[in-house]
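Service request form, structural biology core

Requester: graduate student, group of Dr. S.
Request type: structure prediction, single chain
Budget code: on file
Notes: please return the result as structure tokens.

Sequence provided:
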Amino acid sequence: MMASDLSDELAGLLPRIQRLARRRLWAGLPAPRLRGAHAELLRLVATHPGIRVSAAARELCLAANSVSTLVNHLVTEGLLRREADPVDGRAALLLATPAGIRRLCEWRARRDALFREHVAGLDTADRAALTAALPSLHRLAESLREAEPARPPGDAEPGWPPEVGERWCGCEREETP
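Core staff response, request fulfilled:
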């Protein structure tokens, strides 16, 4: 397969897989459903408690005002809370609520079960091919991340990114090298 064909195939297939999985996962989840960006923000805040809106926006590759809108929705739903930054009173620190953590844990358990079921349904050769492709997909994601525009000087936030492992539901989640 030529590189341009592979690029087109990946660009179409990866979002399709995500959309299909999301639709399957929404069935049976309590309302209101978390849309993709809401879930991404909640996962980020649960992983990095105390993150600022501006840092979350950079991490999610969204505009700060878009993240603020997401924050307002999640706060209204009781899944997220804001606290004043003790260092800079103008800034807010974001924290997931216990309800937000429960929602994430439920989502993750359902997502993991869904993918386990469908990956197990593939034959051995397909599972081996997916396993072999994972390092390349991680490098592709890193390459896309590195291609993002550089932050202006002085735009880095103190203590960001935090040097802690990714946390989910009170347990450490292994990160893929």
